[in-house]
Specification:
single chain, 217 residues, Arc Repressor Mutant, subunit A, two-stranded antiparallel sheet, 8 helices, 58% helix
């Protein structure tokens, strides 16, 4: 056992680490694929809103340049069009006959991150302490997720990664889901429950993404 992790967990996390090094290549088309799934319609603007939401949430996991959301979206769409996965017609993004297989593959690459962040949201909603340190957070979220895995409630071993846990916490602070303040040279965190619940529901497609204001796509 390594720091509370079973050898099986360590092996799976090692495999995930190798996979994750390649994911930046697929980030933009994969986020478009996820956005297509999240969106309730085919309008390009609506799908862009979902893409931008996902990009904002996972910007600590992947390499995105600030202010390039529209360009990243267009690049993702271009690559999917080039591979004849989707096509754009009268402001709608439509999937081709053979596109479902490609989209399923791309979503499969990134769905573990979505599930990781959902699980961490679920942990935060169960956090009983008003304030906690990063060290306490890491220990408790690992215990929470290990229990889910042991119970068979999840097969998402990526959530045991301390990198994912730290990136999620940084993202939640940036998004205002978790408040961060410094007390006696130590950073303390506090959960905004309504915001956390909304984020968890949005990641789970239970709540619609608020439409992003943007120039005409």
């Amino acid at each position: 056992m390594v720091d509370g992790l079973l050898l099986q967990h360590v092996t799976l996390l090692t495999c995930s680490a190798y996979r994750n090094q390649l994911l930046n290549v697929f980030a933009r088309p994969s986020l478009v694929a996820l956005a297509l799934q999240m969106s309730s319609g085919a309008r390009k603007e609506e799908i862009y809103g979902c893409f931008r939401f996902l990009r904002d949430v996972f910007s600590d996991e992947f390499i995105f340049l600030p202010g390039n959301a529209v360009k990243d979206f267009e690049e993702g769409c271009y690559l999917l069009c080039k591979t004849e996965t989707i096509y754009v017609a009268t402001g709608n993004i439509l999937v081709t006959e053979k596109g479902d297989t490609v989209l399923e593959f791309l979503r499969g690459l990134f769905e573990p991150f979505v599930e990781c962040y959902q699980i961490i949201c679920q942990y935060l909603l169960k956090e009983r302490e008003d304030y906690f340190t990063e060290k306490q957070y890491l220990a408790r979220v690992r215990t929470f997720t290990s229990q889910l895995l042991d119970q068979g409630a999840s097969q998402c071993y990526d959530v045991l990664s301390s990198d994912v846990q730290k990136n999620a916490l940084a993202a939640f602070v940036r998004l205002g889901v978790v408040q961060k303040r410094k007390v006696d040279n130590e950073h303390l965190f506090n959960v905004d429950e309504p915001a956390t619940r909304k984020l968890e529901e949005t990641l789970g497609c239970k709540t619609a993404v608020r439409r992003a204001a943007t120039a005409k796509l």
